Amino acid sequence: MNVGERMGLMTLLPSVHPIDSNSGAVAGTYISLKNHQRVTVIVGLGVVAAGTVTIELLQALNVAAGGAKALNFDAVYRLGGIVYHGPTTLGVFQVGEIVTGVGSGATGLIHQIHNGHMVIYEIAGTFAIGDVLTGTTSAATATATTAMTEYGLNCRVAVAAGNTVALGIADETYEIEIEGSDLDINNGFDCMVAGVSASGGANLVSVDYLLSKLRYKEEPQKSAYQD
What we know:
- The protein is mostly beta strands.
- It has no helices and 16 strands.
- The protein has two domains: 7-72 and 163-214, Sandwich (Jelly Rolls); 80-152, no CATH class.
- The chain has a seven-stranded antiparallel beta sheet, with no helix packed on it.
């Protein structure tokens, strides 16, 4: 495979290796986006012993953290799936409300509502055929005609704009998409870091970077850990 063929490939680099956050901050590793136009920050939570894990993004002038300041974002991608159901009764389901599968006891948050099915994320338990899907806020109900299917959908979930987000669902993967243009490039900011700024307990967490959209054709490719 020549350099041109590699232009569409991605590079995976660790920022925080899997670690017990032990109720404290865990510094990440800075990367440079000089050679890439996009980075996906991938956060993995394993055991969540207490509270939440706060992920913080910063941008800087160099990988030595020169002039570090906030790198804001407004969405986190969450894993979701689909549950098909029969006619809705007693109300209208609402996006963002908790839905409970009365029968299995599974719960989740509604991401999208379609004719005859809904997309659900932040799932606890396993939705089953025959569950009476019940909206906590709307009180709407519908009977599930399938168990959860297509789990692994990437659901874009809006969060309050800022450079931190608190995550707390065990055994889940979260993604934050950053474009090179999201950085203050006009003032020379082309480096960034994702790390753990706080943790409510001995929680297992990892943070990785998936870099994509190479800017330049060169072999070997420059390390994103270097300026």
